[in-house]
Amino acid sequence: MDYSELSVEKAKAFNADEISKGRLEVKQGDVSTLDLPDGTYDLATAFETIYFWPGLEECFKEVARILKDGGLFLISNESDGEDSTSLKFEKIIEGMKCYTPEQISGALKKAGFSEVSIAHHPNKPWITVISRK
Ligand SMILES: C[S@@+](CC[C@H](N)C(=O)[O-])C[C@H]1O[C@@H](n2cnc3c(N)ncnc32)[C@H](O)[C@@H]1O
Description:
alpha+beta; Rossmann fold; binds S-adenosylmethionine
């Protein structure tokens, strides 16, 4: 799911084969108000997108709502919230916010997630944060 019409169009074109086989659906929508049912999914992922979410804790609560109890949420960012390249983009892209793993972890816990684990690339600012509902 993505709220940008262009991103949805590109994702549909790239994944046309899988969509035609009924293995994938690409939907347009906003993570802050997901048009998806409660307690349904085993896994939610967010790649390179939480920088733009309108209120981390509230959006994480919305992700928690659609996950089954015990479901996993994986966040993957190429910024660890402290790297100079991403902080430069943060200054010029309106609404962008880079988060440290600790800030992400704190918001996840406030949103009801537990078992938060953080992985950081040894020499790049790439992070993965996995948590369980
Ligand atoms: C850097 S792109 C990453 C796209 C894709 N996840 C990937 O890994 O290739 C960030 C995406 O987040 C989307 N996005 C930002 N805020 C969003 C929101 N509130 N709800 C849904 N998508 C959002 C943007 O439209 C954009 O396509």
